[in-house]
Amino acid sequence: QPRSLSGMQPTSDSLHLGNYIGALVEWVRLQETHDAFYFVADLHALTVSPDPAVLRERTRLTAAQFIAGGVDPARSVLFVQSHIAQHTELSWVLSCLTGFGEAGRMTQFKDKSAKGAGPNVGLFTYPVLQAADILIYDANVVPVGEDQRQHLELSRDLAGRFNARFGDTLVVPEPHIMKATAKIQDLQDPTAKMSKSAATDTGLISLLDDPARTVKKIKSAVTDTEREIRFDVDAKPGVSNLLSIHAALTGTPMIELEAAYEGKGYGDLKKDVAEVVVEAVTPFRERTLELMADPAELDRILADGAERARAVAEATVRRVYDRVGLLPSA
Ligand code: ATP
Ligand code: MG
């Protein structure tokens, strides 16, 4: 079976609707056809300097949400990035193959360093660690949102470069990006992607929010001064975003959806989207809270996943170290 692999950062208590529709739903689907590896990217989260106790709590919360969303730890390898020391080992080797200018062209670094207070070197080398996350498991497909396309391209380049220089060693991964749902936008600023680390909370649909709050956020989503409901990202980013959310959660083709809203107003669309979201998110929220009530069991699941992940990661790093000429320890 081909292997799929992906991760999310524990950078907030709750995942948001973009993480869910853009990635998690696809992770779950890929379990059917792929040997799946999914992880909580806690090392990546260190780039934004989290409080230690908060990071610990969010790491469990993020893992619980993967399971609540349908990741089955018996089928998939579910683990925490920092439990596998080999990620940082491979990252070092790859960073020595990455051009300084190449890393400097990563747009997420530019976006995030513009927002945060003084970027650190970790934020700069983040895409290299991400390449290690992927390449260390010989992943064939990487299901992510559109915002990760450039990072994935770097992973592919690094795998290819390594293989060209040291002989065939690493699998070159394919991006797996769902076209229609790959990018859910911020409700208040529909030209920006919905983000855990967004400046304001009002544009963010957090999966663990209580339903009343979610409804309120959707009803105050920014639209435009026209009245017509149609999918047109450039001219109508807000309305198009609401339509995307609806289409993704109900599985309705966009053409049908547009037809169904002919002659109706933005208020109708918002009301329906709110209903669809609350319906999807309510069981998810309940299941997450249940899982969080038993942290020992959650830790046991993560320890089991780490053991299975480590076996693969160790073999890759041994292979890589040998290829680049690092002397094995006797
Ligand atoms: P942060 O702001 O801390 O980077 P994030 O919201 O971007 O958080 P990540 O943990 O970086 O979330 O990404 C997890 C997954 O969710 C990735 O596959 C990413 O592509 C996807 N994703 C993130 N935001 C969106 C979005 N707005 N629409 C679709 N997919 C998204
Ligand atoms: Mg992100």
Automatic annotation (TrEMBL):
Source organism, top-level taxon: Bacteria
Record EC number: 6.1.1.2
Protein residues bound to L-tryptophan: D133
First-listed, main subcellular location of the protein, grouped into a coarse class: cytoplasm
Transport is among the record's keywords: no
Binding, ATP: Q9, P10, T11, G18, N19, G145, E146, D147, I184, K193, M194, S195, K196, S197
Compartments, record wording: Cytoplasm
Cited CDD domains: TrpRS_core (cd00806)
EC class (word): ligase
Gene Ontology molecular-function annotations: ATP binding; tryptophan-tRNA ligase activity
Subunit structure of this chain's protein: Homodimer.
Name of the protein in question: Tryptophan--tRNA ligase
Gene: trpS
